[in-house]
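Justification of computing resources. Each target in the renewal requires a structure prediction run like the one illustrated here; the chain below, 115 residues long, is used simply to show the kind of job we budget for.
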Amino acid sequence: QGQLVESGGGLVQTGGSLRLSCAASGIIFRDNMMGWYRQPPGQQRELVATIGIDFSTNYADSVKGRFTITRDNAKNTVYLQMNSLKPEDTAVYYCTSRQLFRRIWGQGTQVTVSS
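Resulting structure tokens:
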């Protein structure tokens, strides 16, 4: 079965940057839509960004212009470059893949932005 492993989270000051990575295994990566979701403390999980098999992208309004999602099909990896980070970006960030009715989630990586 498929597996997604996130990395790159951590503690950063307001205005700083982080790059999250998500390495996939056990799936045909190029045939999967990939995405990042996040779950702030005490809140529900929410969409951050997605990237399709055609490399089309979609972003939550709250991160447009600050975050960039990319994928490298040769490395089976999806990235989330996060710039101009704000305290409200603090959350556990989850990677997800989807192909037809099959969705897989990673274990999550914590991002904390200090004010």
